[in-house]
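User: I'm preparing a small set of examples for a lab meeting where we compare how different chains pack in three dimensions. I only have the primary sequence for this one, and I'd like the structure in token form so I can line it up with the others. Please keep the answer compact; I'll paste it straight into my notes.
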Amino acid sequence: MLTDRQIQQPTLTLRERGVQLTLRDRAEAAFAQGEALLPGPEFHRARIRLNEIRERFRARLRVAVVGRVSAGKSTLVNALLGEERSPTGVTELTFNVTRLRHAERESLTVHYRDGRPSRQRSPDELWRLVAQARHDPERLAELRAVDWLDLGVPNQRLARFDLVDTPGLDSYFGEESARTLRFLGRTGQDVHTATVEHASRADALVMVFASGLAESEERLLEEVTGAGLRAVEPMTSVGALTKIEYYWPACPDPVAEGRRVADRLMTKSGGRRILFELVPVAGLLATGAAACTERDAADLVELSRISPSLLEARVRRGPYFASRDYADLPVGRERRAALLRRFGGYGTVLACALARDGLTDRAGLREELLRRSGVVRLGQVLTEHFGNRADLVKLDAAVQEMGELPAQPALLSQPGQSGQDAEPWMRWRLEEAADHVTRLRLTEHAFRELALLRRVYDGSVVLTSQELSHVLRITGEYGDSPAARLGLPADSSPSSLVSAALRQQTYWAGVDLDAARGAATAETVRTVRRSYDLLLNRIGPVDNRPGGDG
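Assistant: Understood. Below is the structure token output for the 550-residue chain.
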């Protein structure tokens, strides 16, 4: 068995060599020290559990997309990826959990509920399975046994985190969905349970709200917060208000209406208690923009040449726009139908308006439509708020799970023995092993920053908008590098970094002297000033750098 001294030695050697250890490095050392205290067969189960927690910490961040059935979750996932990957048109598959992760080559692994081993399949083969199951009892039995799908995708947007598309938080469904569930041998409660189970195993959540699926906006929040998920908080939860394109044509500007509804949900309905941000997203517009072809762009340019009022009047007629011959429209009905399916009514009118203003090339049109859809902003929030703090978010969960180990009697029991019969020294050893990881909450400044952010989000600390921006930046919202934490260009010189850090320290020292700001602000200031101290240590003394700016 390794001793504490042997485990610590590599860390000491790295420090002696001047290598700056990361939070991940220190966490790995703590896990190793804890595991070393659990030798022998009597701690076999405890070691298995410890390694499960460690592997979750090592794994890529998992972000679960949750909400009601028909809220547009799969469409949102596809919009974030810029391609159709999560099943949206195959109802039987949308009632399964789908995990999408980055891979060099496309792959699909099907996991089953009935104990049979997981199986590699091609996506096309899985779609065929659905189609054939209605006529083949053997295929139907396999389809009913599917638990969840693991889809590997060569998509760089998945480089920072995995996305988990869940089926829905509903327990009761309309007749069409109920018929599909009966065909699959499942119930609405099965779907709800699977969603909660996989979402609770995720590190962060995208909570999807679709206005119109509840009788009030307050009810939208209640349906998600009361669904039985583990603690939902702004640190690990963001929201997407989907299907805003359907505000059109009642609202000429559905994006503005989406922002108004989102602001009301966040301020008056209590959304700020659980969400970092609620982003309005036109999912259909985003997926249409991502799949826009040269032919689509050319047709949109042609339609943009007629008067805006005539075009809007025709598009407002929906099915007629796609099926009737109009002498005053320069694009045939089949192509109009294709545009309407891809972009929707609002997207078609918007794209033509952009083309009318001179944005006629496919790439430029696609980029602007994506931006206006809100999906670019949502992707930015996921990358900054989750991706840039991935290790800390996962370590926070790991510390909590490790702290629960000594309270689990099964980890101390052996065959024929209950946990209550365990030797006291075994329980003490498990507490000591867990302590190597849980003490990180006391020794790592990143956890103080995390506590500060939680106080900011729950409203117990009042900051100006500029101060809030600085707090988010110095705590790593926009990246972990010294330049990112100071809001400077990536190629900034060491002297520029030091000067910026010292200026901020001076400002926060002034806030510290303002007794009128209260005790909560004083604690905030101490944390922020320490953050700048540690950042200056990372930068190092400028005048000692070879060829430096000193």
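A couple of notes for your slides: The beta strands are 61-67, 97-102, 107-112, 119-120, 146-153, 161-165, 204-210, 237-242, 278-280. The radius of gyration is 27 Å.

User: Perfect, thanks.
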